[in-house]
Amino acid sequence: MKQIEKISSFQFFILVFLFVIGSSVLYIPTVLVASAKEDGWLVAIIGGILGIGISLFYVKLAARLQGKNMIQMYDEVFGAVIGKFFTLLFAYFCLILSSLILRGIGDFMVTQVMNETPVEIIMSCFVLIIIMAKKYGIEVLARTAEIFFPWIIFLFLLGVILILPELNLQWIFPILDNGIKPLMKGTISYLGFPYSECVLLLMVVPYLSQFQTAKKTWLLGTTAGAFVLFLPVIISIMVLGPDLTARQSYVTYILAKKMTIPRVIERMEVIIAIFWIFTIFYKLLLCFFCLTKSLGAFFKIENENILAYPLGMLLIGTSIISGENVITLNEFSSTVWPFFTFQMGIVLPVMVLLIDVVIKHRQPNKNS
Question: Would you give the DSSP letter of residue 208?
């Protein structure tokens, strides 16, 4: 009999936190400032609050699931045939998201750190590690995240402290000089990336050892992630200015180059990059976990680990063709991707919740 894996509430908090910041910490400052200029920090606040509201909705949906994952809920609400269609659509969503994250890792390493290394080699190395980690299961994943979590926080706080002398408060003014429309545009992009993507975490909720604490844990993880994403946005505006921030692909990496202690610590950007690699790795691993789980359920495979290697090769292929360069990926992430995640992360879960409420409401009347 297969042993049931369990994770603690604190481990789930860490997974939520890492999933929210994930690859977003690299791209969000550019996306928000390109939309709202010096008001990008306002978008980070508004979008963070709305993102916490989205997480509250997911918590309500998780309570309705009652120990089921999202795939099982599709079958229960829509029936076996239609449920399989939505399961396949969910798997496609996980595949595209995983491909974008993997391609983002590859482009970052090639353009900023290892310029002469082919991007295919870097992505293949990451995929091999992801496959190995997936086979150990969600419990081992959560435990390793718990080990690295203090180091991630330490590196982030170190970067914030070292950049404080460079801050210039004048860059955030004037406020709302461009009107409300840019704020709305930036908020839509921000909600699609990363908050609507958190629907994947519903696949992890059944592994919680204390399901009753899911609400508090999920909201705390989202709040902490929103705060961590807010800081790079406002810091990048106050250090680089809105124009330079909007033109850079990896703003936080550019900020890290300014973090130095003369004759003591130099080249801090490589050390800070470890923080980003950790967060991106765990988000990619969670997406790959959901991908194998959903396809395993679709094909009714009891041990979905046998899908890890073929899906890993598919992931490398889709990552190669997902975008020509960083600019293309950024444009796709800020325009097309938010609407796709809105459908998968908001519209479809709302349909599931409403239909489930109607079904549960009719059942007592039918029995009576």
Answer: B
